[in-house]
Amino acid sequence: MFQLLLAAVTVLLARRSGQPEFVVCIPFASQSLSRYGSLMSDGVLDLPLRLGAGKGDSGAQVLREVRSRLMDALEHPLVTQGTIARELAMPSRGNRPPFTGVFFNMNPRVRLDDFAPLSAQMREGRKRGTLGEILFNFYEMSDRLTLDLHYSSEFFSPGRVAELAAQLRAVCEELAGSMSRPLSLEAPAAPVRAQPLPDDRIVRWNATEREIPAPTRFEQWVAQQARSTPERTAVVAGGHSLSYRDLDARANQIAHALMARGAGAGT
Predict the structure, then answer these.
(1) What is the mean pLDDT of residues 102-124?
(2) Where are the domains of the chain?
(3) Domain 2-112+128-177 coded CATH 3.30.559.30
(4) Which comes out higher in pLDDT, residue 89 or 110?
């Protein structure tokens, strides 16, 4: 079941990313093999898998390739994203994993009736944050499978995550229908979302249409401004200022002085 669900996620990622290959990490508890044998924590080791799907591959081919890549990775249980980054002298980004923020996990069914006569319940400890981008976290129940999608709101919106969940379900149904049929890796068309009607207040605030007046000369514009806002400052220079009324009056004085000396149009 683990490999089949991982194959379904691989098909989904191939369709969404358009990439022939990508890296997905799985949690792998091999602390006892390392020098930190006594360290116990969720996500201490993440085992990177190089996965992918080819154009025209069937579900059986994707599953076979996923199984092969998984077995290869399990032969090197201490090769994590961190160890690879150190070998390649990659600088740490600190706020996210070095290679991929996509994780996959499946939690096998736990028989709670084995605790009889005690009663037992399982509850997941919710995380307040995640360094990864998205975690496909499956749970095997007695009569069904459930999926928790842990995601970073920096990369995904609730609507986009809902789309991913629906598309992953469609992939699972496609594989359940036939493992021999060639799979399409074309990304499904994005759903058309109805655009919300704008707030009527915003419509009124933006109703600023005005007729564009005929071109005016500069002195006509100053005279018009002097009539509408006579006291507003028009010119500031050398520590002095003139209002539009004063500027218009000074301009008229100069114009009349020039006309008295014989100046006119064209001179």
Answers:
(1) 81
(2) 2-112+128-177, 218-260
(3) yes
(4) 89
